[in-house]
Amino acid sequence: MFKSKASLYTTRNEARWERNENRRVKITNIQYIKASQYRFFLV
């Protein structure tokens, strides 16, 4: 899925999209970690 979507872009836009995707994934991971810690405190 990632390859096919990235191939639609030029190399410059592809790099930018990749950075945005990595940032989004990183934020999602942080939110998941915070949620799991919060859930741990509730238990």
Describe the structure using short key phrases.
single chain, 43 residues, mainly alpha, 2 helices, 86% helix, 0% strand
| Overall number of domains | 1
Query: What characteristic shape results from the CA principal axes?
Result: rod-shaped
Helicity level: over 70%
Distance between the termini: 37 Å
- How many strand units? 0
For the sheet with most strands, the description reads: none
Strand content: under 5%
Radius of gyration: 15 Å
SSE class: mainly alpha
Q: Helix tally?
A: 2
Average pLDDT taken over every residue: 71
Helices and strands, in order, run as HH
Low-confidence stretches: none
Written account of the structure:
With 43 residues, this protein is mainly α. The chain has one domain (2-42). It is 86% helix and 0% strand. The radius of gyration is 15 Å and the shape is rod-shaped.
Task: Give a topology summary.
Elements lengths: L1 H5 L4 H32 L1
Write a compact overview of the structure shown.
By secondary structure, the chain is mostly helical. The chain has one domain (2-42). It has helices at residues 2-6, 11-42.
